[in-house]
Amino acid sequence: MPDNITREVAEAHWSKTKKLMVTTLAIWFFFGFFIHFFVSSLNNIVILGFPLGFYMAAQGSLIVFVVLIFWFASRQNTIDEEFGVAED
Amino acid sequence: MALSMKGDFTDNLGKIYGIYVGGFFAFVLLMAVLSMVGVPDRFILWSYMAMTIGIYAFIGIMSRTAVVTEYYVAGRSVPAIYNGMATGADWMSGASFVGMAGTLFVLGYDGLAFVLGWTGGYVLVAVLLAPYLRKFGAYTVPDFLGTRYNGNAARLVGIIVLFCCSFTYITAQVYASGIIASQFLGIDFEIAVFAGLLGILVCSMLGGMKAVTWTQVAQYIVLIVAYLLPAVWMSTVQFGIPIPQLTYGGALSKIAEYEQILGVAKAHVAPFTTYSPKDYFFLIFCLMVGTASLPHILMRFFTTPTVREARKSVGWSLFFIFLLYFTAPAYAAFSKFNLMGLFANAEGLQLAFTAIPEWMLQWGSIAGHQLVTICGVKAETVMAIQTACEAKGFVGGFPYAELKLNNDMIVLSTPSIAGMPIWVVGLVGAGGFAAALSTADGLLLAIANALSHDVYYKMIDPKADTKRRLMISKILLVVVALAAAFLARTKPSDILSMVSWAFSIAAAGLFAPLVLGVWWKRTTSMGAILGMIAGFGTTMYYLIGNVYGFDLVKGTGDEIVWFGVASISSGIFGVPVAFVVTYLVSLFTPEPSREMQEFVDRLRLPSGGQMMVQGAND
Known about the structure:
The structure holds two protein chains of two kinds.
Chain A (H helix, E strand, L loop, with lengths): L6 H26 L6 H4 L3 E2 L2 E2 H31 L6
Antiparallel strand pairs in A: 1-2
Helix pairs in contact in A: 1-3
Chain B lengths: L1 H10 L1 H24 L4 H22 L5 H6 L6 H12 L2 H14 L4 H25 L4 H8 L3 H34 L3 H51 L4 H19 L14 H15 L3 H4 L8 H19 L2 H17 L5 E3 L5 H7 L7 E3 L2 E2 L3 H10 L5 E3 L3 E3 L4 H8 L4 H39 L5 H24 L5 H25 L5 H23 L23 H18 L5 H10 L15
Antiparallel strand pairs in B: 1-4, 2-3, 2-5
């Protein structure tokens, strides 16, 4: 443990980090797997020629993944700063 | 000289790559002009290859280094966005560039398992691993395992897994670069393999990770331009809007109409026509978890300056990868729409023998590969096609169902199919070559670094000086590269399967020990070692048993199948086994020492600098 950080702070930081991990992976699971279980029904909705089920696997989920990682990175930064454990 | 270059280089990245991009566009423009004034095609194709390989070699030589941290982790000075581009090139292999759109063309919706699997894994990298591995400050992935799990046993098992997955993968890359070089330069496949190898070695040997990083950035730019341009071209020609990712909805509806007209049973957008839902989701799972376990990808995140940059860098990596992957389905749709149109608009829905386009024969007659098949024969001459089709009862022409295209030719041939000029064809070839080279570079470095740093330095001769270690690393690089080239010459299997196996192997052997090492303090050395062995063993057992059977000969009937799972998803058994074994054994062994638990605590905090201090204990 670095000298200037107490065990309590470190534990609180880690518990928030874990919560963020669970949230992020839940969103990941939803767009990586769950939504594609319903591809056949989603394909009945067609937008601009794209059946929605196909679109989600070809583009929609991918966009979510990219945004999700940047969102996660900024959230984790906020957490690090909140507990004073961010890099200088 | 080398040192002063380095300062200049990282300080002026924007300027340097700005000039590079400008120069690259000027070169493409020059090729366009030359092709218009009638310079022979062959000259244009050779120029593309010579020019791009020359540039990569130039960057490799400019960033040569003899400093250990530069050689192993590019001096940890790569900004997030550039590391993102380098990771993109590292990631997108010959298989992605050459094979992805072709797979989507043939499989339709089911092929999207690859698109999803090869992007979603980065969420796991960002959340579970990259920041912690960066904080640790290792040179290699086995380095982390060896430290977290107290010693050389864990390090050795890690190296074995790394070697198995990376070597499988690199053989596929050398094979792919050989195919591209032989088709575009018209030289023999066996010679082309070694020509490709030379290009790979020039970059990685002189400057290690540093040279590979800056070459990969350059290669990313070539490959993404080469991939996007034909798609933008087709979108503009057909729909008047240069955004293929938006307009291919129109192509999809057209394909659906054509499918009705031509009586194609498998609709392009319909799910689970080739894979069962089980295969589809298992494959996605294995590819995602494999992404988060492949050492050549994880080590790219060792090169960022800070933990914060490492996280952001994963986002940039996925963004740059996304640019290609969300274009691939558009590429596939436009090609399919073009091709089906030939038949749907023809008289009697049959393509007349007299109207067979030039490209079918050109690609069909390439020796040694079955790229275009019509009525069951290799499409070499109109006569041969006509004879075969007439034997099947088709007079005057043949229907859509009798045409079979190989997955690997779709991207490379689309420019000629859609009637684009030779300078676009050459550009696409250069892009495919860049993709294969950059991935091979990263893989080669991952293997050579693990062997020189972990095996030689940490296990055999801990007193070896810097010069000796780098020398060993460079020699091993050449040895591994030659071994891969010799294996590639035997054309072992198709590119996509080999690549998918590498993912399953990595996922089964490395994911559990890496993730639990950070996220579960109670994980013991014995637990991790047995977990790795169990996971890796289970997947290898299934892979070999499923593909070859235990007499190691294909198709002799002793192959095993568990729950109907395909070999490309064999990680589905190994990953849970590794987790369960690690968990149970850890509970039955004494908990890790106090120092180790504090080590994990420090790993979890970004502040306080990296943990392995260079010079002191490297």
